[in-house]
Specification:
single chain, about 50 residues, elongated, mainly alpha, 1 helix
Length: about 50
């Protein structure tokens, strides 16, 4: 995952928190790309089984 200093995501369940963290990471990456602060990269997300 990209480095997001100070970023936190909470949820009622671990799955909800993981989904919010993924959304936050995608928003941060999109903003960096739009501002020319990052180059395009391949990304993937994985969530441990049972989350």
């Amino acid at each position: 995952m990209i480095d997001l200093p100070g970023a936190l995501a909470y949820g009622s369940t671990a799955a909800e928190a993981a989904a919010k963290a993924q959304a936050l990471a995608l928003r941060a990456l999109a903003e960096r790309l739009e501002l020319g602060e990052a180059r395009p990269i391949d990304i993937s997300f994985s969530v441990p089984a049972g989350v």
